[in-house]
Structures are given as C-alpha cells and as structure tokens.
Write a structure and sequence with these properties.
The structure is a homohexamer of 132-residue chains.
Chain A (H helix, E strand, L loop, with lengths): L1 E13 L13 E13 L11 H12 L20 H17 L10 E11 L2 E8 L1
Antiparallel strand pairs in A: 1-2, 2-3, 3-4
Function (chains A, B, C, D, E, F): Catalyzes the conversion of 7,8-dihydroneopterin triphosphate (H2NTP) to 6-carboxy-5,6,7,8-tetrahydropterin (CPH4) and acetaldehyde.
Pfam family, one (chains A, B, C, D, E, F): PTPS
Protein name (chains A, B, C, D, E, F): 6-carboxy-5,6,7,8-tetrahydropterin synthase
Chain lengths: 132, 132, 132, 132, 132, 132
C-alpha cells in the first residue's frame, strides 16, 4: 500500500462542557497540526499515488472554515463535543467527500483509505483511519 | 479506527550481555521517549476514544517503576535481554493489564488495540502493536 | 554560557481584536508549546546550571493559571492584546519573579538570563530573551 | 507485531517531466529523510526483531548508490518518473532483496513486512508498506 | 529581545564543483527547510514584533524564485558555490532588502536583526545571523 | 555570524550520587542527541564555514569514547558528577581541542565559537556555548 501525507494546521477555540473534561470544560483552544494521509494500492502512469500539490490544496480548503474559529459557534458542530477525535473524524469525512467529488484529480478513484492525525501538543495526538 | 496517543519518557541503564550487541554488551543506557496509542472502533457519548488525561496518568504509572532504574537489577527483567523491542512489549503488557482493570475509565472496555513506540534516538525506534 | 531548557504546553482561547489580525480578530485559540531556557555563567558544585526537575516544576506552576483558559477573561491580560510575543514576555516576567524568589533552588542567584520560546504551530514560533 | 525502524537520508537531483508536476518539471532536487521499518511477528532468543545496527548498515548500503546523484542519469530509473512514491517503492524492493539474501543477519527469515517512509519536507512525506 | 520565526521550504538542484565536496561535486539536490527569525527590541501597540502573516508572505516571496530550480542555472548564483551557508546568506540579504523596503508592514523599521536557518537533513543545518 | 550544526547521539549509563538528584542518584542512563554548532565570521573561497562532512566525522570521533559506556567507570569523569551540562562542556572542550589541532580542515582557524546542545528527552535539553 502506498500513502502520501501532507501537513497543515488550524488554531481554534472551543469548550468541552462535560464533567469528564475537568479543567477543559470552559472556553479554551488548541493548535491542531493536521496530517492527512491518502492511501492507494498502486501508482498512476505519472508515478503518483496522489499529487502532493492537490492533496495540500484540498486539505487547506477543508481546514479553512475551521481555522481561527470558535467551534462552539459553528453549525456543523451543533450539539457536538468537539474532542480531538471528533474533529479528526469530521476532517476525514470532509476529505472523503472531496475524494468522492474527484477533487484530488483524475486519479481520485484510486484512493482507498484515509488517515487523519491531529497533533494537539508535543505530547498528545489522535487519529481516525478507515477505508473509503 | 480511532486512536489516541500520549507521550512520556524514561531514562534507564542496562547491559545487553550477548555477543550480537557488540559495544552495547556492557553497562550503558538510554532515554526512551514512549508513545502509547489506544485504539477504539468508536467514540463514547462524550466524543472520546480514550480520555487523554487518563491515558497520560496510566502511562506515567506504568513507566514510574522503570524510570531512573538499572534494568539489570529489576526482578521483572531477570534473565531477560532488555532490548528496545522487549521493553516495548513489557509496557504493552502493563498497559493491557491496566485496560483490563478498567484503569482507563468507564470506556476501558472499548479499547481493542494498543501500539507502544519507543524512540531510542533521533535515528532509531521500535514498536509493538497488537489487538487486546 | 550554560543553559538548561525544559518544555511544557498550554491550550488557550483568545481574540486579537485589532484590524491587523484579519481572520484572527475573533475568538480562536492555540496550543503553545513552551520552552523555558535558564542561563548561567558556571555550574554549582553538583554540576548543575539549574536543576531540570526544579525548572520543570516552576514552569508548570507558572503555566497552570493560563492553561485551559480564555485569556480574554483573565485580569492579568486586561486591555492587553495577547499575541504570542506578549504571552512569551508574560511568562518571562513570571519566571524572572520565580528566580528572584529563589524558587529555582539555592542556586537561583546564579541565573543571569532567560529565553522563553512559544511554538504556536509546526511553522511559527516566537521568543523573548533577556538578561535578568 | 514488532517493528524496528531506522533513519538515514539522501540528497538527490531529478526532473519530473510530465505536465502534472507544474513547476517541478525542470531539474530540481530533494533531501529525502528515509525511515525503514522491519516487521516481525516475534523476537529471537536475544530479544531482537531486527538488530538496529544491521538495519542501519543495510539501509545505508541501499541508499549509497542514490545519494548525491542526479536520478535522471541512473540506469535503474531509466524511463521512470522518480516521484517520492516511486523512490519509496524502489528502496522497499532493494531492502526486500537484502532480507531475502539474509543480509539482516541470521534472523532475516523472520522479517515479514517492510514500511519505507520518505520525508521530503517538514510538510509532506510518502511511504510504501507491504508484506514480503 | 523579541523574535518571531516562520518556516517554509524549497526543493533545489545544484552541483558543488570543488574538490572539497567529494561525492557532492556532481549534480544533486536538497530540500532546505528554512526558518526566518525577525528580531525587535520591543513590540508595537498591537503587541507585535512582526506580524506572522506578513513574515510568512515575505519569506514565501523570497523563496519562490529559488524553489524547484537548478541553482547552477540562476544568474544570481553565477560563479558562486551554492553551499547551505551561501544560500542562507542570500536569503538573509533578500529579507534584509524586504525589511528596508518596509514589506514587513508599518513596523518594519523596528526590525534590528535577522537569523536564517536552513535545515538540509535531520542531522545537519546551517544559519546566518546578523544585525541589520 | 555563520554557523554549521551537525547531529549525532550517544547512549550512556551513569549515576548522580548527590542528594539533589533524588531518584536519579542510582545507576540509570540516557540517550543524548548531540548538536554541535561551529561558528565563523565569514566563509572560505569554497563557500564554507565548516565542511559538514568534516564536522560530522570529528563529532563522531569525540563521541565514540563515550558511546555505550558507563560514565562512572571513565577516568576522564573521575570525581565528576556527569550532569547533562557537564557532559556538554566536556564535549565542547574536546571539540575546541579538535579545532586547535586543525582537525576541522584547513579553515579550522576561522572557527571562533562553539555551541554544544544535548537533548536528553523530548522535554529537556542543555547546552554550553562560548567563544574559542
């Protein structure tokens, strides 16, 4: 299996209003450094799994509506607790839609799997990985 | 599959008294930067795979008896060659026990897999990953 | 010159309500990975510039009132634009006070300089460095 | 599953003469920081999956003919577009041959899988992972 | 002293045709991950040393003519051996010109010093740092 | 000022038998990832501050007698507490001797300053920096 992974980041505010989150129940924030990996079983005739330029552009497009936002105010996260895992899954779903819409170029149909990793600090990260 | 991964470290001495280890047969040591990943198939109603705080605490608890030790002196490693792989497997087993004992919180039963990575330098690391 | 540097992090929300900040004028947030370096001209009789354990504890103490907070709500930042540079200087001042109060141990008087670096993403950081 | 991963790097020139590569069609270059992971189901009687020293040596041997080269001039890449993915697969094949030739030591037969990761910048990487 | 540092990268080919470079005399290449630090003695009324957005844009502008190029073909490097140090100094000079031209915003005059670091691999880097 | 910095590492055991070290008083160990920076005011006619190859070789030569050792057994550290700071200074002195002996090549006399950084974990490091 081949994979191409590109990195970007978002800086967001949110609250996690459930007792389990202790001091993180109030309004706070995070930088999420986001790695998006696109998996393919083979390469196209140009030697590409996914074009890194296209992957970078699509990831930036997906992240833009989240960047510099208070996630508590976004309709897409209404009644949702925006943990790192939940945001990873949300970005996964958005990128899966982009793959389905062939926004990763003519070889989009060859992408069979995605892995989205969110680094929330130097000491913690979470990811969601699944077949498309 | 979701995963939450937390990082900590230990600083240990040990010897590797077998000919294959060449210059590492004598007493020397290592900092192991330890990444522990906890995998779940879904998230709980708080949006959590595993609580990062609980994961951090349990990893610290597991590492504490190893930190600042000479592994050659520890009963748990008697007659064992404490390679990076062996220590990764030992930490895996300890964390698997913690999961079984529900020390990762009420959602402990949802953890299906662990991956334990030990970085021994900027140029080498080893890991053990398996289903529980 | 010797230096000992320790790392910790905070996860905060804030707004930057000035036109120059463009999309960052609204409520958003950041993880700041914080490196605090303590400089000394020489070492004490135990071979220490600063005890890494003490440095880690004091840095954690200084960061605790900021962690998981909305900086817009904190009295210490009233009428202040909490840029990365401003927060670096604030942490510098707090650590300078800790040094003056000998909270870094009996050798605190030997610390002549501090450098506080805040990494706000994989692609940007800021620091403040000055003599005490 | 156990894995041992070692890191090295190469500095190469190449061109990517297909329209999809846009500004990268001309002669340019890259540093590839290469991580090679060797997977085994169990450990030998010395506690090893693969000897890190042997893995480091074999990886260096495989990279040497590529390092400081213009890949456009190498016979092994004739009529090949040397994308990051293609080079990852090439290094995989070379290491698979080394495993088959037992160049990883007496336990070479125990290696069941390889993962070769090429970091081309702080923001992009690609890998090829497969069973042997 | 305050500093704001931003990161970008270039992927270039070049040759180093002098005997001292041994295997690097021929055409090869590098990814240079570039950190540009802008130093100021104080902050402006918005709490800024340098605006990170402006710094990122100006660094990208300076790097663009170098990215994906064969440096041997560029007029600016005619009769120059393009070592990592030389390229660091070249980027320094370009950024110094940008500061002088007030391309870093109205506070450009407050920038007193630059440090340009080029990481050529995980194991080597070079920098040039000087007052303006 | 120019600088060229190269990275290597050592894996050592030692004890720190003074009360201030608490749990680190007994035999334990560390991986020290070592960065050695060589400063020059200008570049030679080949565009070099220091040749990275020569710097890498000399650093490896200096580290070799320490690697895989129990520092408590080494004559050079007799009656010395081998803190990270002390080892950084020791490596500085060895590299300063190498510079004085012109082991960094014909341009050795141009090196005016060294900075030796020892990373002992992902969360702590120490350095010694001084003019020659």
């Amino acid at each position: 299996m081949f994979a191409v992974e590109v990195r970007d980041h978002i800086m967001i505010a949110h609250s996690l209003p459930r007792p389990v989150f202790g001091p993180a129940q109030g309004m706070h924030g995070a930088t999420f450094v986001v790695d998006a990996a696109f998996f393919t079983r083979d390469l196209d005739e140009d030697g590409l799994g996914v074009d890194i330029g296209a992957a970078t552009t699509v990831l930036a497009d997906v992240l833009k509506p989240l960047n510099y936002q208070n996630l508590d105010d976004l309709a897409v996260f209404k009644d949702t607790v925006t943990t790192t895992e939940v945001i990873a899954k949300y970005i996964f779903d958005q990128l899966a839609d982009a793959v389905a819409a062939k926004r990763l170029g003519p070889g989009s149909h060859r992408i069979t799997r995605l892995k989205i990793t969110l680094h929330e600090s130097h000491a913690a990260r979470a990811w969601y990985e699944a077949d498309l």
